[in-house]
């Protein structure tokens, strides 16, 4: 059984040596451990450092694509190189390499599709109270939307089975963490988590400029992901609330029409407008829910076709048409 540890990198020459050194090369139940670096347009010596440290593969993005696309390209490369299990970690040395053993162990013992390495958000000394609150709130929201129980949904330290990696898709360009969990939950994947420890922070995050920016962008990602997989829940909830408002407005409107003298009917016009607006909104939401369900079903069919196509490509080893990029390989250079 082969494990490939993938590390998306952008200018990580200072921290990458420690990250690679800490990755265990012998793990129980694993015959071979390899390391893949995804270089996302680094302008420093990240690639040279990776080669010196003895990594097995370096995948070069044609330009800076961002974390999400680098993550997906890494999964595709790992699959092509025959990975049975894939572990994703960061290049900033946030996560401890020793915990990779735990991620792999749980994945094998519980026959899971994904295992998330979850940090202690409440006890994290480098997180502010505001960040702790919104991290916890975000984890509860994503877990509920995906029918999961994950205390740290923003952790990028996670292991994937081969089948789970082949089914994983990422639409947004910001971050893969929340979207892939919502997707996994909606597709019925088995997702587990384990507590992990973290190293001291070596630099500020390059993913977002401020907590507000992160919250705003991640909220949009979560909403978009939920709409893709469970549109009827979203639209029917809003439609149902609109119907309740319409019912209340209708009762109020009818009361003024039937029981109040015409010269005292001050508020009936406002109630009538609110009644019409609520009814129209409810109808639109119900139609949107039905239409979204149809589109979601078509998306599911497309994902199943994509999964079968990807499995066929990997079995035929047609790497050139699959990866469509340049991969440095220890002992040689492959243009894939």
Helix segment tally: 11
SS class: alpha/beta
- Major sheet summary line: 9 strands, mixed
CATH class categorisation of the largest domain: Alpha Beta
CATH superfamily of the largest domain: Spore Coat Polysaccharide Biosynthesis Protein SpsA, Chain A
Low-confidence spans: pLDDT under 50, at least 5 residues?
318-322
Fold-level CATH name of the largest domain: Spore Coat Polysaccharide Biosynthesis Protein SpsA, Chain A
Helix content: 40-55%
CATH level-two architecture of the largest domain: Alpha-Beta Complex
- Sequence of strands across the biggest β-sheet: 7-5-6-4-1-2-3-8-9
Distance between the termini: 24 Å
> What's the helix-strand series?
EHEHEHEHEHEHHEHHHHEE
Total count of strands? 9
From the spread of the alpha carbons, the general shape counts as: elongated
Describe it for me?
The chain has 336 residues and is an alpha/beta fold. The chain has two domains: 2-205, Spore Coat Polysaccharide Biosynthesis Protein SpsA, Chain A (Alpha-Beta Complex); 231-315. It has helices spanning 16-22, 46-52, 67-80, 100-109, 129-145, 162-167, 177-186, 211-229, 231-259, 268-316, 319-323; strands at residues 2-9, 32-39, 57-60, 85-88, 114-118, 158-161, 191-195, 326-329, 332-335. Strands 7-5-6-4-1-2-3-8-9 form a nine-stranded mixed β-sheet, sandwiched between helices. It starts with a strand and ends with a strand. The model is unreliable at 318-322 (pLDDT under 50).
């Amino acid at each position: 059984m082969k494990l490939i540890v993938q590390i998306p990198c952008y200018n990580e020459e200072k921290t990458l040596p420690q990250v690679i050194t800490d990755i265990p090369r012998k793990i129980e139940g694993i015959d071979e451990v390899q390391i893949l670096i995804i270089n996302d347009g680094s302008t420093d010596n990240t690639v040279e450092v990776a080669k010196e440290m003895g990594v097995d593969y370096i995948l070069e993005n044609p330009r800076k694509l961002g974390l999400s696309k680098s993550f997906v390209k890494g999964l595709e490369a790992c699959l092509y190189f025959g990975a049975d299990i894939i572990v994703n970690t960061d290049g900033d040395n946030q996560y401890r390499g020793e915990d990779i053993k735990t991620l792999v162990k749980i994945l094998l013992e519980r026959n899971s599709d994904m295992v998330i390495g979850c940090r202690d958000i409440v006890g994290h000394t480098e997180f502010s109270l505001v960040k702790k609150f919104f991290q916890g709130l975000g984890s509860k929201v994503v877990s509920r939307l995906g029918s999961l129980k994950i205390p740290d949904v923003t952790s990028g330290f996670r292991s994937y089975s081969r089948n789970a990696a082949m089914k994983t898709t990422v639409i947004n360009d910001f971050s893969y963490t929340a979207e892939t969990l919502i997707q996994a939950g909606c597709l019925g994947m088995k997702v587990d988590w384990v507590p992990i420890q973290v190293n001291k922070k070596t630099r500020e995050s390059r993913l977002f400029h401020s907590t507000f920016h992160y919250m705003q962008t991640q909220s949009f990602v979560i909403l978009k992901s939920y709409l893709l997989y469970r549109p009827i829940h979203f639209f029917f909830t809003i439609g149902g609330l609109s119907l309740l408002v319409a019912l209340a407005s209708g009762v109020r409107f009818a009361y003024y029409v039937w029981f109040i003298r015409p010269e005292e009917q001050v508020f009936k016009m406002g109630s009538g407008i609110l009644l019409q607006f609520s009814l129209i909104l409810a109808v639109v939401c119900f139609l949107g829910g039905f239409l979204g369900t149809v589109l979601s079903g078509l998306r599911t069919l497309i994902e199943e076709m994509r999964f079968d196509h990807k499995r066929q490509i990997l079995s035929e080893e047609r790497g050139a048409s699959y990866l469509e990029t340049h991969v440095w390989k220890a002992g040689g250079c492959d243009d894939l």
